[in-house]
Amino acid sequence: MSFPKDFLWGGATAANQLEGAWNEDGKGDSICDHMRGGSLTKQRVFDAEINDDYYYPSHEAIDFYHRYREDIQLFGEMGFKILRVSIAWSRIFPNGDDATPNEKGLAYYDDLFDECLKYGIEPLVTLSHFEMPFHLVKTYNGFSDRRVIDFFVHYATTVMNRYKDKVKYWLTFNEINFATMPFGALNVLGILPEQSSTDLFGMADRPQERFQALHHVFVASARAVIEGHKINPDFQIGCMLAQMTFYPLTPNPDDLLLVQDWTNIFDNFCGDVHVKGEYPWFMADYFKKIGVEIVFEKEDVTLLKQGTVDFYSFSYYSTNCASAEGGKEMSMGNLMGGVKNPYLEASDWGWQIDPKGLLYTLNYLYDRYQVPLMVVENGLGAVDVVEEDGSIQDDYRIDYLRSHIQMMDAAIEGGVPLLGYTMWGCIDLISAGTGEMKKRYGFIYVDKDNDGTGTLERKKKKSFDWYKQVIASNGSCLE
Ligand code: BG6
């Protein structure tokens, strides 16, 4: 096994998917607090006004806000070296444009990080995981208004200053490249839908507004990186993308060209801005085709160049194929699906399982960027069954994780500098895509159903002890 001895094994979460306590201790509502529950066949609906007739899963989530000590103790028992959490921006600045932060929110994360450090767990903090304060959405139309950059930087520097001795690893924007797709406009950019209630696919797309807002997010991220390094030069600050690995369905050159186009727009664009500090050459042509002209303020070129990230992190769940011909059988995936790959099996939610694709992706990314990498999301969303004896035999999850860890091992062996691995949803939490509890990822089962009922009791699954042994053996014992 080739995992370095300081390899960061752990798990990943996001505030809106596990904390709950959506309006406690001075927290303001965020984008996610306006998203109803859905399912594989029913899109989640966003309501501009929260309506008591509907169920909003983030409002209670798995109540981590009150149970974090118990949960972190379990992560400690598994031997986690790192825990990815996000700070709920609206717990610190309830409206987003407030002059002073909410002390109760700051104190909460102080305790949470202390609790991690007690077990030798490094926190890995995402500053923005689809959690913009809703007031910024409503009043400023999110990042489409350049002033929101200042609000974000104020928030980022507030928490970086406060936790500078407790947190070393930071990520700026979760899955920033979601904004290269029309339906990412609300979650990443905070662009307000015209309708008072809509699913994300029903939102009208205005590419000029969307890409200008994304430009503001790049500038906000770069400024957070620059300021973060001033606050503590030891900070390691990364970007975070949803990795969209596509294969050509056939050797038809048109399929290959389509893959190249999609990879450039959905992955390389954001990756290049974050790591190389400039817009890649191919975007000029794309913007021309879709009628977009990005307004750069005079300082932006320098900010993007100076605010490049220390490492590249990404989520990886599955791959898809691309075909220039229509009428193919389709498959699902994180953020977007594609054409079905005849060589791959899929999860219960139709995401194709492709460990070798992770090896390909790690090699591809290191070849392109030559900076350290981190896999900050990977896992299997599945239906788990509690047996009569109370056990949860999630061998399918162990198989999924094992096969992906083996490919990380192969990548490291081949020379890729991989810093760590945070398995997504280390404790069952609300699914971002569907709002369900039924789509479970965790090593720890949480007794809660899609409709919000359940005791919230935690139970170890079979994979709990398996992962404990993986960490203890530094990846050499995977059986
Ligand atoms: C990523 C997000 O899109 O994938 C997470 O960063 C999300 O927030 C994860 O939960 C898995 O997706 P889903 O839809 O299964 O929850």
TrEMBL record:
The keyword Hydrolase applies. Keywords: Glycosidase, Hydrolase. Pfam families: Glyco_hydro_1. It comes from the Bacteria. It is an enzyme of class 3 (hydrolase). One of its GO terms (biological process) is carbohydrate catabolic process. This is 6-phospho-beta-glucosidase. It comes from Enterococcus asini.
